[in-house]
Amino acid sequence: MATNISTNDGFTLKINPVECLGCLACVMVCSFHHTKMLNPYYSSIEILRDDDNATIRLKHYKVKENMHYACDRCQGEKRVLCIDICPTEALYIK
After folding, report:
1. What is the pLDDT averaged over residues 52-80?
2. Beta strands in the chain (DSSP E)
């Protein structure tokens, strides 16, 4: 079952938790896009693992919150980086 993340402009980021490895490559590339640093606290997304229940969820920041940047859909890039870097294609837009 996919988790949907929608913004007011119709942009929906989805994650397939069955395919997600929890490797955080998407989180790191997102933080690098915003700050040119690999720091998960600056990312617009978080991958939240619940090992007790064997679930993975996506948290998506649509507005700046604490140190997390708001998602700008990789403005200035040719593609959405979190989707491109995912080794299992667990992230996608629909």
Report:
1. 89
2. 3-6, 12-15, 45-50, 55-60, 91-93
Q: For 61-71, what is each residue's pLDDT tens digit? A: 888 988 999 99
Flag whether pLDDT at 10 surpasses 80.
no
CA atoms lying within 13 Å on the CB side of residue 56? 17
The position carrying tokens 């890039």 is: 77
Domain regions of the chain by residue span: 3-93
Asked whether 79 and 91 are in contact (CB, 8 A), the reply is no
Evaluate whether 74 touches 81 at the Cβ level (below 8 Å). Answer: yes
Under DSSP, the state recorded for 41 is G
